[in-house]
Amino acid sequence: MMNQTSDSAGDAASVESASAAITGWHLHVYFDAETRASAQRVREAVEREFDIVMGRWHEKPVGPHPMWSYQIAAAPAEFARLLPWMALNREGLIVFIHPETGDAVPDHRDHAVWLGERLDLDLDALR
């Protein structure tokens, strides 16, 4: 339950500061040979409906990611539109989401959101 009794200027400033630190969002859609067709449908819908930058297909683990994947990069305002859509339309795929603050390890380790199963990342690849 959210605390709705606090409305101090300090709380508002910290929310604005945290939001300002996020310059964008990355969504990594994970798939394998069996789920590639689902990943293709999700990708095509995202490209059609959202103002994003779509990354390449990676049919092998890349960087910290333990599965095949592609990346979707979204500005904060577009992310606000994309997240609810992805939550309802990911076709059972695992989606790893993290903010872009300029500090890769905490962005991937501490500030991440998962849709579906949470997987272990290779954080050493970010160091």
The whole-angstrom Rg is 16 Å
SS field, number of helical segments: 4
In total, how many domains does the architecture comprise?
A: 1
CATH topology: Alpha-Beta Plaits
Distance between the termini: 36 Å
**Low confidence ranges:** none
Shape: globular
Kindly list the characteristics that best describe this protein.
alpha+beta; 5-stranded antiparallel sheet; 4 helices; Alpha-Beta Plaits; 21% strand; 5 strands; 37% helix; 127 residues
Commentary on this structure:
This protein is α+β, with helices and mostly antiparallel strands and 127 residues long. It has helices spanning 9-21, 36-49, 76-89, 104-109; strands at 24-31, 53-54, 68-74, 94-100, 113-115. The protein has a 5-stranded antiparallel β-sheet.
Give a quick precis of the structure:
This protein has four helices and five strands, in the order H-E-H-E-E-H-E-H-E.
Write the layout of secondary structure elements.
Layout lengths: L8 H13 L2 E8 L4 H14 L3 E2 L13 E7 L1 H14 L4 E7 L3 H6 L3 E3 L12
Antiparallel strand pairs: 1-3, 1-4, 2-3, 4-5
